[in-house]
């Protein structure tokens, strides 16, 4: 296990700190660019080894990385394998590897870092090519409040703090209002010239403190998604207080191809709902993912959800991976086992948790694994990237074997019985699909409630 972590925040703050190998003392709150970066040497000598560097692991974001590169200059190559990039929406291999991104016109201001994709740490486990860092869901209630289930009122809380999020949602909210008193926590400008889009029947509390918001959630039966913001912590907080989350479904899914918000982000991910994590890993009875434009289906979902709550079938629930203990367990495993500087370490996750599956035509490895309640494990692509393994799992011999550089390999083309081996290791990817290809996919199991870790990982 690394005996040291250095956290590089983007800005000044009370949680900013840096520690070097020669001292156990932590700096007072400081600024990123001056005091923390001042601890790092430039690589004045070409003979300087990584062991001479004063740090073992660097947590940083993309904007901070730009400052970091300017500071270390020629020494960046020695530091790059130590980096852990805090990256909310993830960076897919196609956007990360500079030559490929340029040739496919996938250049973005966040991409082309040429790192191991698992060095990107995401907010939710949506990109198996990256590492799921996550966060801890806030708890504001005192111990006595946490131990008792507050009586639920016939009310719902709408998820949307800004007025623009409410635009065009009148019919949707009216259906909720038919059965429940509807509350909001939206900021409205009392001196604004425009007419508020928040319906007059909404009991608007304005922006609440954490404890007050959590008490409101504990009293409420439904938490109502408006379709934006994407993938925030609030639905998990609501579910933890016994609310049912109404999760707007997107058809077609939102992506960089059709949604302005995702344009320029280093991912081609297709977002199927406002909160894909709770859709996929939590589900009913805590979450109902529904087309909010389908009034009949929406009404039935609301009736069903309220019936479950009234019959005491819905209890407060928190996925373990979003608790303090769950996050510490996950990060401890990463610190102990992830090493992007040394190629000769024992394989992790252990082989006992990994199986190889030949995917259906046109399926990504991410989807191939999820269909079997497994997770694509990108660190094993290099293990299965050979003719013998392909033939074993497709059940026939390769008529021809070629090498290629794309995000779909290793793979098999049934029409020509051709096997394709990945030539560029930076392009191993769980995502990506081509209609005439069967991808060879490494899939691992996972601990329920701790998707980042396999059953033999601890």
UniProtKB/TrEMBL annotation:
<keyword id="KW-0328">Glycosyltransferase</keyword>
<dbReference type="GO" id="GO:0030144">
    <property type="term" value="F:alpha-1,6-mannosylglycoprotein 6-beta-N-acetylglucosaminyltransferase activity"/>
</dbReference>
<keyword id="KW-0808">Transferase</keyword>
<comment type="pathway">
    <text>Protein modification; protein glycosylation.</text>
</comment>
<keyword id="KW-0812">Transmembrane</keyword>
<keyword id="KW-1133">Transmembrane helix</keyword>
<dbReference type="GO" id="GO:0006487">
    <property type="term" value="P:protein N-linked glycosylation"/>
</dbReference>
<keyword id="KW-0333">Golgi apparatus</keyword>
<protein>
    <recommendedName>
        <fullName>alpha-1,6-mannosyl-glycoprotein 6-beta-N-acetylglucosaminyltransferase</fullName>
        <ecNumber>2.4.1.155</ecNumber>
    </recommendedName>
</protein>
<keyword id="KW-0735">Signal-anchor</keyword>
<comment type="similarity">
    <text>Belongs to the glycosyltransferase 18 family.</text>
</comment>
<keyword id="KW-0325">Glycoprotein</keyword>
<feature type="domain" description="Glycosyltransferase family 18 catalytic">
    <location>
        <begin position="40"/>
        <end position="443"/>
    </location>
</feature>
<keyword id="KW-0472">Membrane</keyword>
<dbReference type="GO" id="GO:0000139">
    <property type="term" value="C:Golgi membrane"/>
</dbReference>
<dbReference type="Pfam" id="PF15024">
    <property type="entry name" value="Glyco_transf_18"/>
</dbReference>
<dbReference type="InterPro" id="IPR052105">
    <property type="entry name" value="MGAT5_Glycosyltransferase"/>
</dbReference>
<dbReference type="InterPro" id="IPR026116">
    <property type="entry name" value="GT18_cat"/>
</dbReference>
């Amino acid at each position: 296990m690394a005996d040291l972590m250095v956290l590089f925040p983007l800005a000044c703050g009370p949680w900013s700190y840096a520690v070097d190998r020669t001292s156990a003392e932590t700096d007072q709150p400081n600024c990123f660019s001056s005091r923390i970066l001042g601890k790092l040497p430039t690589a004045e000598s070409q003979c300087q080894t990584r062991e001479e560097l004063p740090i073992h692991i660097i947590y940083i974001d993309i904007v901070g990385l730009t400052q970091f590169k300017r500071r270390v200059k020629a020494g960046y190559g020695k530091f790059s394998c130590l980096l852990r990039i805090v990256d909310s929406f993830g960076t897919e291999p196609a956007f990360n590897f500079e030559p490929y991104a340029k040739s496919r016109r996938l250049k973005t201001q966040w991409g082309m870092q040429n790192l191991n994709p698992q060095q990107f740490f995401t907010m939710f486990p949506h990109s198996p090519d990256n590492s799921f860092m996550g966060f801890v869901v806030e708890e504001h209630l005192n111990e006595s409040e946490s131990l008792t289930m507050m009586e639920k009122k016939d009310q719902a809380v709408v998820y949307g703090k800004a007025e623009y999020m409410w635009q065009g949602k009148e019919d949707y909210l009216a259906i909720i209002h038919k059965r429940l008193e509807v509350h909001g926590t939206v900021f409205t400008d009392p001196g604004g010239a425009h007419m508020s889009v928040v319906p007059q029947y909404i009991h608007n509390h304005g922006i609440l403190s954490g404890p007050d918001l959590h008490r409101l959630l504990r009293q409420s039966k439904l938490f109502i998604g408006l379709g934006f913001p994407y993938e925030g912590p609030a639905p998990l907080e609501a579910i933890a207080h016994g609310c049912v989350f109404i999760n707007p479904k997107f058809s077609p899914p939102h992506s960089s191809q059709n949604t302005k918000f995702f344009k320029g982000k280093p991912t081609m991910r297709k977002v199927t709902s406002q909160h894909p994590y709770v859709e996929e890993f939590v589900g009913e009875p805590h979450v109902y993912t529904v087309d909010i434009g389908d009034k009949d289906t929406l009404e039935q979902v609301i009736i069903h959800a309220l019936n479950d709550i009234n019959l005491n079938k819905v209890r407060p629930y928190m996925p373990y991976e979003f608790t303090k203990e769950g996050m510490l367990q996950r990060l401890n495993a990463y610190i102990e086992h992830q090493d992007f500087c040394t190629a000769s370490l024992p394989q992790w996750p252990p082989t006992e948790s990994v199986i190889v599956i030949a995917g259906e035509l046109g399926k990504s490895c991410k989807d191939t694994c999820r269909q079997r309640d497994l997770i694509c494990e990108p660190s094993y692509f290099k293990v299965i990237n050979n003719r013998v393994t392909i033939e074993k799992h497709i059940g026939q011999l390769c008529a021809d074997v070629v090498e290629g550089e794309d995000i779909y390999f290793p793979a098999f083309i049934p029409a020509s019985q051709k096997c394709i081996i990945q030539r560029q290791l930076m392009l191993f990817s769980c995502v990506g699909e081509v209609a005439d290809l069967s991808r060879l996919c490494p899939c691992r199991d996972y601990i329920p409630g701790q998707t980042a870790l396999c059953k033999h990982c601890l």
